[in-house]
Amino acid sequence: MKYRVHRFNLKMTSDQSKLEQFLNSLEGEVITIIPNVTWAPKVQVDFLLIVEKLG
């Protein structure tokens, strides 16, 4: 099996449709989505790591 890891930069309040388009464009199976959470000065997600399993 081969895997590919994608980094997806986002703003949680405005990038929902971009994330949806990105996920629908992937060729393989999404194995997991790992958020990068920062805590200062407020809690937010800066980017996602998306692991894709290729056929």
Task: Describe what this molecule looks like in 3D.
The protein is an alpha+beta fold. It has one helix and three strands. The protein has one helix spanning 16-25, and strands spanning 2-9, 29-38, 44-54. It has a three-stranded antiparallel β-sheet with strand order 1-3-2, with no helix packed on it. The chain is flat. The protein starts with a strand and ends with a strand.
Key terms for this structure?
single chain; 55 residues; alpha+beta
Reconstruct the topology from this structure.
Layout: E1 2-9, H1 16-25, E2 29-38, E3 44-54
Antiparallel strand pairs: 1-3, 2-3
Output the helix-strand order: EHEE
Q: Quick one: overall form? A: flat
* Biggest beta sheet summary: 3 strands, antiparallel
Question: N-to-C terminal Cα separation, in Å?
Answer: 7 Å
Short description:
The protein has 1 helix and 3 strands, in the order βαββ. The chain has one helix at 16-25, and strands at 2-9, 29-38, 44-54.
